[in-house]
Structures are given as C-alpha cells and as structure tokens.
Amino acid sequence: MVSTVVVRGLSKRYGSRTVLDRLDLSLGTGVTGLLGPNGAGKTTLLRCLATTLAPDAGAIRALGLDPAVRDQRTRLRASLGYLPQDPGFIPHFTAFDLVDYVAILKELKDRRARHREVRRVLAEVGLADRAGTKVRRLSGGMRQRLALAQALLGSPRILILDEPTVGLDPEQRMRFRSLISGLGEDRTVLLSTHQTEDVAALCERVVVMSDGRRVFDGTPAGLAASASGQVWLVGDRPGGGLFWRTAEGRFRVLGGEPVPGAVAVEPSVEDGYLLRLGKPAA
Ligand SMILES: Nc1ncnc2c1ncn2[C@@H]1O[C@H](COP(=O)(O)OP(=O)(O)OP(=O)(O)O)[C@@H](O)[C@H]1O
Questions:
Q1: What is the pLDDT of residue 238?
Q2: Of 254, 246, 263, 245, nearest to 281 (Cα)?
Q3: What is the per-residue pLDDT for 279?
Q4: Cα 154 to Cα 179: distance, rounded to the nearest angstrom
Q5: From residue 101, how far is each of 33, 42, 118, 265 by CA, in Å?
Q6: Is the CB of 40 under 6 A from ligand 1?
Q7: Is 55 in the pocket of ligand 1 (CB under 6 A)?
Q8: What terms describe the molecular function in GO for this protein (predicted)?
Q9: pLDDT value at position 92?
Q10: Distance 175 CA to ligand 1 centre (A)
Q11: Is 188:16 a contact under the CB 8 Å cutoff?
C-alpha cells in the first residue's frame, strides 16, 4: 500500500482526559471505515487530520505535507475535503450560495471557474436541480449530500467524512454508499461511522478505536471472522454474554460460554466490533 496519510504517536488531551493516546495509523487509496463507541476519539482524530485541531504530540504527514508547518498546512488544505459531524449550515443560504461560500473560503478566486466548480460538485451529489433551494427547505438526506458537495470542492485527494450517514433513511443511505464507494476508487476516504452495515458494505478496511487507541485494523471480513465461534443460537435465555430474542423465539448470544444445544452462527462485522470493545465480558 502506498500511504497518502501517515500518523505517528498522535496524542491529544482535554484537561486530564486523554482522548488520543499515541495513535499510529497509515491510510492509502480506498475507503477506510473508522468505528468506535461515543467518546472513543474519532472526531478528534478526524479534526487533527483535517487540520482544524492541533495535536499535543505526534506527527501527521498527508501527501507528504506536515500540517504543523503553516505553509504546508495551507497546501494540504487545498487537497483535503472534510465533512464535519455538525456542518453548521446557514439556513437562509441557497444550496449554491452555501457551497460557493465554502469555495471562497477555500480560496477559489476566479469567480467563473469557482461557480463552474460549485455546479460540478452539486451535480456530483445529485443536487444540481436544488441549487436555488434554501438550505432550510432541504431534507436531511439532501443536507448531508450538500455537506459532501462542499467537501468535494477542488477534487481533493483525501476525504474525511464524520458520520455522513447519520439520520438518513435506507434509500438515502444507499445513495450515500454508492457516492462514497465511487469516491474511494481513486482517493483516500476516511469514514467515521457507528453503522457497521455501512462498513461491511463499502469499506475495504476498518479501524476500530477505543479510548483513543487503535484496537483493530484489518478488513471488515477479518473483523467479523474474529468473532468466529463466539456467536450462538440457543433455545433458553442465556446466563451471560450479549443476547437478544430472535423473531423465531430463540436467543442469539454473543460471547459467553456455549451451552449444550447451542448452534454456532456466522458472525457479523458488528459481532466482531462488539467483541473488540470487550462488551460481552463487561
Ligand atoms: N473541545 C473539547 N473540550 C473538552 N473535551 C472534549 C472536546 N472535544 C471532545 N472532547 C471530549 O473528548 C472525548 C472524545 O471526543 P470525540 O468527539 O473525539 O469522540 P468520538 O469518538 O467522535 O465520539 P462520537 O461517536 O460521540 O462522536 C469525549 O469525551 C469528548 O467529550
């Protein structure tokens, strides 16, 4: 793998709380999913990579550039798209105005070329016919696509997406998956999410974070396989592990000791993820 992003020993604290703990990570072309529970440090990592937050220690190199050095940071920003967790839209702007505003901040100076680029990214996310619609009149899914559109300005080689599919209905999520997988064909996409189905569907690699550390790094299939032999279907309510009652009236158990009559079932990415976090044993 040719690395476009290399992170070494990245640390960040807020007061006495360590949010990133000497994190190492390398990214190449393709879509990498970033999974982790609330507070694991995902957004903090993404903000450091997006150059909106300075780490306390450690190094980042993205496209060979060091965001700690001012002129390199400026150059890097031109090659980087960021969809933040809370884009903070201005509701009375139209979709076009909003993306144009970000384009101005990104220093796309030539007005005609800038407007062409705004129309291009709106078309890329399927919002060409909504350019004149006020942001407050767009649906949640359309706003998420608008947030993606601004991240695509200037065709960045690195895309950092913080929970882009949160709150979307299944059809919108599918549209987003399709968009993101296409984008990952020739660029580096880091996608933070709580949706293990999205990771299984579109990420060739998945990194699991917990307490500011990387606790898994591999393929989604590898993460699922790591739960092999630890997922069961049983007839009686189990005494341990994480479980739920299935529609057929049996119990699907993750972790815990197998009981007589337990039938092993194929684990999912979610099973592997939960076991990595040590939830069943907790
Ligand atoms: N500016 C800040 N000041 C103080 N604490 C902060 C700040 N930003 C984040 N934190 C804390 O750092 C921890 C990690 O936050 P972060 O947003 O990186 O987690 P996350 O993995 O993205 O979580 P989520 O899935 O909930 O978005 C949390 O406990 C959060 O409350």
A1: 82
A2: 254
A3: 60
A4: 17
A5: 29, 27, 10, 51
A6: yes
A7: no
A8: ATP binding; ATP hydrolysis activity
A9: 87
A10: 28
A11: no
Is 24 in a helix, a strand, or coil? strand
Taking a C-beta distance cutoff of 8 angstroms, is the pair 199, 35 a contact?
A: yes
- Quick one: tokens of 69? 């050095």
Confidence (pLDDT) at 103: 93
pLDDT single digits (tens) 43-92: 999 999 999 999 999 999 999 999 999 999 999 998 999 999 877 778 88
What is the arithmetic mean of pLDDT over 30-51?
96
Q: How far apart are the CA of 23 and the centre of ligand 1, in A?
A: 16
State the distance from the centre of ligand 1 to the C-alpha of 115, rounded, in angstroms: 36
Whether ligand 1 lies within 6 angstroms of the CB of 193 is answered as no
Domains of the chain: 3-223 (3.40.50.300), 229-266 (no CATH)
**Residue showing tokens 């601004």:** 150
- Cβ of residue 42 lying under 6 Å from some atom of ligand 1: yes
Assess whether pLDDT exceeds 80 at residue 281.
no
- Single-letter amino acid code for the residue at 64: G
